[in-house]
Design a protein that fits this description.
Elements lengths: L2 H4 L6 H23 L5 H26 L5 H24 L5 H20 L10 H18 L3 H4 L2 H32 L15
């Protein structure tokens, strides 16, 4: 059997789930902003939609690995889908005044920067999410979910402290894993030991 015959098609269930997660981001964003500060049914619906959408990250990954449907497109789209969804949530929370803009800006700069780096590396390789990156996404998802759910209105201000702790942890992991990706980029692009820094020019 040739390599073309065993190559996994990009048009498969895991990639479809990932694309749906990207498409749900603007729907969630609109629902969040339309509710505003009412913390009514739309806010609950937006929070539940975010939780369900971000949960599909584990589902599509499990399906891809268990059924042999892992593709380069999936490796690329999966972290992008997470960034689009979490980015929409962070921007929405900052617009509503529930999250400082500097937190959103710091996280988004890291996420956009790493995504651009992944695209630059496409000519040589596909860079999948690292274990640290996946942990960062998990903690970000928990922190954002707690911020979206209007629990303080039901249980009091102590919930805000829990939200703050998780958001601070997410911020630390975002910065640490961002630095780790930069170190990886430096290691991948540095010349091999003993290799000339500049190839000799032709003398013809």
């Amino acid at each position: 059997m040739s390599a073309d015959e065993v190559r996994v098609s990009n048009w498969n269930l895991p990639n479809a789930i990932t694309i749906v997660r990207i498409l749900l981001a603007p729907v969630f964003f609109v629902m969040l902003l339309v509710d505003g500060h009412d913390h009514g049914a739309l806010r609950w619906a937006a929070a539940v939609l975010f939780i369900l959408a971000i949960a599909t990250d584990g589902i599509d990954g499990h399906i891809a690995r268990s059924r042999g449907l892992v593709t380069d497109l999936g490796k690329l789209l999966d972290p992008i889908a997470d960034k689009v969804l979490t980015g929409a949530a962070l921007i929405g929370l900052s617009i509503l005044g529930e999250l400082p803009w500097w937190v959103t800006a710091l996280i988004l700069v890291r996420e956009v920067g790493i995504t651009v780096w992944r695209f630059v590396q496409l000519k040589d390789r596909v860079i999948p999410a690292s274990r640290g990156g996946k942990l960062k996404t998990l903690v970000q998802s928990i922190a954002i979910s707690l911020a979206l759910l209007p629990f303080p209105a039901l249980f009091g201000g102590w919930v805000d402290w829990v939200n703050t702790v998780f958001m601070a942890l997410a911020l630390v992991l975002t910065v640490v894993t961002g630095i780790d990706y930069l170190v990886q980029a430096w290691r991948l692009n540095r010349p091999a030991p003993g290799a000339p820094s500049n190839p000799p020019s032709s003398t013809r």
